[in-house]
Amino acid sequence: MITYQPGNPLMIQSDMTVLFEVDHPAYAEIRDVLSDFAELEKSPEHVHTYRMTPLSLWNAASAGRTIDQIIQLFHKYSKFDIAPNVIQEIRAQFDRFGILRLEREDDRLYLISRDPAVLQDVFRFKSMKPFVREWPADDRVEVEARDRGRLKQELIRIGYPVQDLAGYTSGAPLDFSLRETTLKGQSFSLREYQKQAVDSFYAGGSSRGGSGVLVLPCGAGKTVIGIAAASEIGAETLILTSSVTAARQWISEILDKTSITSDQIGEYSGKHKEIRPITVATYQIVSHRKSKEDTFTHLALFEQRDWGLIIYDEVHLLPAPVFRVTADIQARRRLGLTATLIREDGREADVFTLIGPKKYDVPWKELEHSGWIATASCLEIRVSLSGQERVAYAAAEARVQARLAAEAGQKLDIVRALIEKHRADQILIIGQYISQLNALQALIDAPMITGKTPMKKRDELYERFRSGEIHCLIVSKVANFAIDLPDANVAIQISGQFGSRQEEAQRLGRILRPKAKGVQAYFYSLVTKNTKEQDFAMNRQRFLTEQGYAYHILEADDFEDPETAQIDAQKVVSLVTYRNKKERRGVK
Length: 588
Fold this sequence. Notes:
Domain Helicase C-terminal: 413-567
CATH architecture of the largest domain: 3-Layer(aba) Sandwich
Number of strands: 23
Strand order of the largest sheet: 12-13-11-14-15-10-16
Number of domains: 4
Enzyme class: isomerase
Distance between the termini: 42 Å
CATH topology of the largest domain: Rossmann fold
CATH class of the largest domain: Alpha Beta
EC number: 5.6.2.4
Strand content: 15-25%
Helix content: 25-40%
Radius of gyration: 25 Å
Keywords: ATP-binding, Helicase, Hydrolase, Isomerase, Nucleotide-binding
């Protein structure tokens, strides 16, 4: 007889998907647990769809989730009985994590299994045979140390994640400490969650620590966590970042918050090639080559010093050449930092294998409630194509349609209205297309930063924005990552990179730095309705929906004439709530 609990919000299906009715009193509690071991696939208004995958379950196991916690959640909140194959699959994937492990004995590297039959199965694959050096016992195979990374890549490809307990080289020692008072004269100490993140990575210096990814929202202090981890390890450190601006922010933070002196830290970028005990480089420079046929000139940086730790900032941006060299340096400690493990190229398994599994994750809303990141309201404003634009859109090819929708003319009027409303705030306007940004700049006469803006000019504009001299700044996608603009509290997204969840999260992150008491952050996303951009927007918002952010939908027609608009953001939210209630009641 099938058990039916109509008040429960979960429906666990035999294909490993979970349907979640979000209009439930325990929504936030369930979401926080569910998102630890399942990936959000769809997030329409009333029922969200999650999928459990091998990688999501392995990450959950590595981060400390247990099978019992998952099963208890299902039994407590499932609307129907759970198919036996679902529980069996969850157990099977949890069992797979750690059934194979790499260990070092007497300077030899062994792949060991608690079930010898698994080793037999694994080495039946033709691709695995070149890794065998010797087979001294049924439960272990000796492998070449130089193959450590590629072995792990191949094993995860055939469905077996490896627990790497082979340890790490100590690296050249570099003793430094965190300051109690920064150079800027502010008291400084790690927040509790930052301590937990460092401890989860370092693991007391044991072989169970030393490689992995820490996932925290923008504004939560990932740079500080990376610095604290380097201080714990006490060795020379290579830090890879997403841009020169980010690299210089790391250098500034290290000098401000640690006993490291300026002669101990170097910038390795297009302009500077300083290799010092702490070296901060960019992904662009280490993966640079003159042509597709040439070698990567600067990958040798990974072997220039005896690094004890390599930090991958914004690890979700890791380029392919860095993946390849990382496979060869598995004996060095590796720390990945990111706001989201999502990669648009689908290489999350490579991050898991070569950098390490997720070691720490904290829900964004949890930090918001604790006051460590800003409270943010997300609003999607839907605009329309003009008659002429609709004709061009209908006649265009699919890829051209996406751009035509993104550059709808009505967006410029809405931006002008929002600037008028938020004239006392610090506003970032972010877009994908330079022609669109140029048109906007001509309309509102605000400074603009693009990829062609010289670094000196960028730094000058960022500083003027931080000081409050500039209240509105137009930025292209160069500002998606690692730009520290703590007083920015309004972001207006006028176009983006198709359905990129990663980009959406990073752009919201630009305004999540903690604010003065009572200052609200607003994230506006302008979307052209009844076009491909509306479909892209639904996908872009999935990750943030998983973190607990609700996008309020507002039609552009609800605005007054942009020339005279006096938009109150709280009234906008109230209007959205009213409209949504009408829709649920079927009122048009």
